[in-house]
């Protein structure tokens, strides 16, 4: 095959007559230019698919619309007609097989497995009536989406697609590594995978402190300090006018202001009379805080809360005693095994991850297992479709494998665009949203009749703890006051006693009468 080389065509030839070889080169160059022009024409057609292009007209000596030329207009009409045939194809009751396994509220097989229902099943039933094809369900007993085997083939649902036993998978995540086998339709909705656990509700032991936020507590303390400083300044100005000695310092003002705010103790008369307006404001402020506190105290005392024991797979494996249960036939089964294996610290952690053959069995294990705590690894839509009928589960913060949910069509299917247009029409008219509201979106009934529960010690033990702590602090303060008092008293006694010098007094012996002694001796 001859190559197109422009350098051969531009070789100088100085003879006046053209040789046969040069003529062949010119013909070859002309063919190359024709081929390049044809490729450029095709590229122009591709550009013209988006906008109406223009072309230079030699006769008009100006740019004219591309499709004003008859041959371009004919080609464009043919292209549009071919596109319409692909988008609005009448299948004429052609049989198309859809393969899946039973999943309640997502894809359910009814009427002896001759029809499908659920949110995704009804979408395809509507498309079958709209596009005039016959939908034949193929139900798989084994719940396996499909994994690639060592020989390059697939098992499960993907295996049926590969062996031409089915053309449609109604529900599938969009993954890049499967594009060699299937094409995806327009997405239906977005999902993420979460860890779902059974909540354990408990009373808030520190409800007294959680009644107000930290900003409110800081504002309350700051306001008391400001009132104390204002009272101290008022007293200081009053004493300066009368030239009296200040009796109470700033520490005393803070103490008495806090006592008024807590409705505890009383303020000395001379202090109260000099700062009466300040203490009236403090009393009013404390009553407002007390009313706000009392109005929510019973609610917070009886309220229960749930604290997540972990946030994701890493903290579950390394920082908790929970075990994970996942769906063995999930479309992310292989990716999940690779992800969770990164967090193993010990060999025994492998036993904490198990698999179930059905999504319903996963939720039943999590809900009704009593001897150990389990967490379910599942997709959002499957949890809404199946988990709501078993028990109430709560998802953790971390999410995994975010993807779009769509339908998978065997790669190379000619009329896939008809499915895309049909799904877009269903979405525009709100039919898909209506099906989701009917089959997936749901709310828990929080208005259940809960029997009366007496307030137990776990709800009020903090109050008694504060009372005991206050009693202990009062005794310690009393003890310190007594020690300070007696120590000061001893110091005063020592200071008031006169400093008398010590004088040594020798006892004076009586004088002896020598004459008498001599007389007695004689």
UniProtKB/TrEMBL annotation:
From which residue to which does the signal peptide run?
none
An example of a GO molecular function for this protein is: ligand-gated monoatomic ion channel activity
Q: Which GO terms describe its biological process?
A: detection of stimulus involved in sensory perception
- What is any Pfam family matched here? Lig_chan
How does this protein sit in the membrane? Multi-pass membrane protein
Q: Where in the cell is it found?
A: Cell membrane
- Residue ranges spanning the membrane: these are 35-56, 216-234, 277-302, 462-485
GO cellular component, as recorded? plasma membrane
For the Ionotropic glutamate receptor C-terminal domain, which residue ranges apply? Answer: 213-470
Q: Which UniProt keywords apply?
A: Cell membrane, Glycoprotein, Membrane, Receptor, Transmembrane, Transmembrane helix
What Gene3D superfamilies would the database entry show? Periplasmic binding protein-like II (3.40.190.10)
PANTHER family, A to Z: IONOTROPIC RECEPTOR 20A-RELATED (PTHR42643), IONOTROPIC RECEPTOR 60A (PTHR42643:SF24)
UniProt record similarity statement: Belongs to the glutamate-gated ion channel (TC 1.A.10.1) family.
Name of the protein in its database record: Ionotropic glutamate receptor C-terminal domain-containing protein
Organism, scientific name? Nasonia vitripennis
Q: What is the lineage of its organism?
A: Eukaryota, Metazoa, Ecdysozoa, Arthropoda, Hexapoda
């Amino acid at each position: 095959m001859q190559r197109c080389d422009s350098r051969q065509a531009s070789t100088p030839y100085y003879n006046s007559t053209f040789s046969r070889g040069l003529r062949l080169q010119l013909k070859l160059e002309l063919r190359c230019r024709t081929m390049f022009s044809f490729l450029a024409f095709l590229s122009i057609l591709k550009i013209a698919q988006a906008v109406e292009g223009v072309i230079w007209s030699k006769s008009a000596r100006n740019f004219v619309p591309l499709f004003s030329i008859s041959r371009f207009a004919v080609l464009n009409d043919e292209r549009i007609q071919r596109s319409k045939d692909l988008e609005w194809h009448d299948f004429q009751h052609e049989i198309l097989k859809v393969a899946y396994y039973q999943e309640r509220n997502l894809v359910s097989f009814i009427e002896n497995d001759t029809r499908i229902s659920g949110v995704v099943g009804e979408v395809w039933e509507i498309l079958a009536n709209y596009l005039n094809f016959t939908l034949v369900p193929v139900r798989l007993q084994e719940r396996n989406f499909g994994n690639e085997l060592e020989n390059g083939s697939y098992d499960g649902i993907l295996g049926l697609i590969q062996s031409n036993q089915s053309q449609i998978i109604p529900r599938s995540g969009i993954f890049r590594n499967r594009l060699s086998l299937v094409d995806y339709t327009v997405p239906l909705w977005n999902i993420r995978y979460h860890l779902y656990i059974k909540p354990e509700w408990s009373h808030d032991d520190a409800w007294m402190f959680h009644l107000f936020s930290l900003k409110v507590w800081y504002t309350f303390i700051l306001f008391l300090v400001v009132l104390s400083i204002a009272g101290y300044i008022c007293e200081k100005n009053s004493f300066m006018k009368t030239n009296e000695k200040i009796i109470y310092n700033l520490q005393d003002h803070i103490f008495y202001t806090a006592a008024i705010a807590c409705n505890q103790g009383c303020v000395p008369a001379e202090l109260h009379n000099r700062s009466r307006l300040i203490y009236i404001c403090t009393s009013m402020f404390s009553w407002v805080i007390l009313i706000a506190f009392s109005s929510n105290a019973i609610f917070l005392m009886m309220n229960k809360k749930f604290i997540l024991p972990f946030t994701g797979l890493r903290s579950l494996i390394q920082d908790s005693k929970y075990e994970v249960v996942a769906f063995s036939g999930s479309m992310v089964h292989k990716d999940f095994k690779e992800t969770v294996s990164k967090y193993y610290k010990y060999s025994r952690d492998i036993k904490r991850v198990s698999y179930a053959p059905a999504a319903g069995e996963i939720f039943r294990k999590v809900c009704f297992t009593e001897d150990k705590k389990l967490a379910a690894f599942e997709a959002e839509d499957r949890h809404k479709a199946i988990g709501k009928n078993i028990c109430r589960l709560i998802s953790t913060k971390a999410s995994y494998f975010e993807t779009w949910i769509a339908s998978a069509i065997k790669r190379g299917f000619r009329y896939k665009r008809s499915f895309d247009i049909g799904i877009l029409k269903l979405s525009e008219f709100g039919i898909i949203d209506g099906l989701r509201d009917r089959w997936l979106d749901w709310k828990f009934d929080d208005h259940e009749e809960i029997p009366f529960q007496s307030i137990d010690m776990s709800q009020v033990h903090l109050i008694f703890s504060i009372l005991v702590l206050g009693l202990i602090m009062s005794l310690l303060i009393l003890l310190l006051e007594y020690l300070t008092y007696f120590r000061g008293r001893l110091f005063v006694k020592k200071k008031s006693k006169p400093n008398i010098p010590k004088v040594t007094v020798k006892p004076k012996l009586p004088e002896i009468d020598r004459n008498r002694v001599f007389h007695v001796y004689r």
